[in-house]
Design brief:
alpha/beta; Rossmann fold
Amino acid sequence: MSSPQQQQPGRESGMRPRPQSFAREYRPSGQLTGKVALITGGDSGIGRAVTIAFAKEGAEVAIAYLNEHEDARQTQAAVEQAGRRCVAIAGDLAQADACAAAVRSTMEKLGRIDVLVNNAGEQHPQDDFTAITPRQLERTFATNVFAMFHCVSAALPYLQAGSRIINTTSVTAYRGSKHLIDYASSKGAIVAFTRSLALALADRDILVNAVAPGPVWTPLVVSTFKPEHVKEFGKDVPLGRAGQPDEIAPCFVFLAAAGGSHVTGQVLHPNGGEIING
């Protein structure tokens, strides 16, 4: 089992066991051939699995990430092994300028954006609500929510009819979390953002949806929780284990591909069997 990591969102290259980024039994069918996707937090975890799945389905991909350069290189290599291009863009997406730069670099190097996946996120557990400082609260929302606004704002002039926006929210948006109150609140905001943006862009035929994973084995886990929590992570869901990133990625493929053409304003729930009625 991985030892704790001090810096968020964590590094996948240091995790043991390594997260599964692409299921060997998955059979791609070219569902995203000719498409270009920009995926934030695409260097590791769910973002890496989505990046690889999109590449396997035929898409060219740009990944925006903070500073986990080795993870980004490994993701690039996996995409290139699939025969597709991958542009890696480092920057702090909590800053509006970094979001605009990620969109600009994607356009310059790949020529278009058909799918925007807003996936980057961070979380900071606190046992005492009063320990959530203004700085932590602002940082959580800047990365998890404001970055989505900034990325969409920068990308929207380039999106065409049929384009897709997919946001990563969380099961905590629906059931809450007493240790992650600011994080769960940000994820609830993403649900409202998804539904509202879907209505706003429906007349342009730009589809906006979200995915709300339950516990998933990603670098964010080992960079966030104490070892005793990591050891038990995910065992409380009905399936009795945390999910793997490659078990979440097919939800994003569905929402990005032709099969999701009549779906907007919705949230998919790959969470190990937890019923959340959302």
